[in-house]
Structure prediction request, 360 residues.
Amino acid sequence: MSIFRLHRVALCGLILIFGMTSCGGPEGAEPVRERARVSVVREGPDAVRVDGVAPLAGFAKGRDCTFIGCLEVLLESAGRRISYDDLMAVSGMSFRTQFRVDRWDVGNPDPLVGDTRLDALFESVGWKYEVRIVRLDELAEKDALHRAICRSIDAGMPVLAANIIPPEDWGIITGYRRDRTYLCRSYNDGALTIDEPAKGWPTAVVILTEKLSPPVRERMRMAAVKNAIELWEKRAVGPFAQGGHAFDQWSQLLRTVADRDYVHANFWTYICLIDARASAVRYLRGVARDFGTKQLHVAAAADFYDQEVRLLLDNLSSVPPEHEFKDSLPPAKVRNKQAEVLQSAKQLEARAIDSLKKAM
Prediction:
């Protein structure tokens, strides 16, 4: 499932990510607030939209996980303000390394793919949810999905959906019309700040079904550190290698590539690894003081992740995007260099995890 978007401006945004990892940003320390900012606007018997949804922002500027970016906006609309870095950390996305071993997969960094992170995520933020994946030709399921989306919109809760404006990023369904079309926010086609008609079938949908008690910050912090350790030690989920094993499998496949089909998935997985670890740095530095006498261990882990981000950024030249090799395979020298970088990144992550274990 190709949920994430490859965008050339990502390279520009990496410079900003690099700077952000060097400061102790307060994102992880924001209080959870409970003030809804949206209203339901009925424009006819079968035309309803949720008004007041905030703009999508931050792609290629330290917020490359479009699912988490959309969820942050959705929760804020419902009155529960939890930052991107908090959501990345409590879901484990800040710390997860996942790599599909049977084929090159641009969905490696997606929260729903492989080792899904949704249970951990929604348990931490205090919300029940359901996932629906329906093909366009499944007529009965398609009707049921439409009714479920309409019920959520009628209740004032927008819906997370993939592919509503292709390519297959996550976006937000904000309304529906009589002809069964949807209004949405998306990272594509000018729909960042205004509702636009959907252009694609929602290939995956996540509906927030019941609001639970607000999250407790201390539990969120401990859940984040526990996630980091468990995800590092996990070896595989189905065809997806995990943690340190994922670095090994990724490096090995780079050395045996036979055609250029790997380039896109490889580049995007690498870019998302940078985004995830930059988020980990900001989060850990923001919450380190809350660990009291063990804050030095949390700060040390953040420093190791920061070194990893710098290492990955410094070696971007060994991870070429598609437009640099339109008709040829990147040379073995380039691929071998990236494999070496990934092994060095793995060593830094191992040291970060050792520090986090001391903080538990």
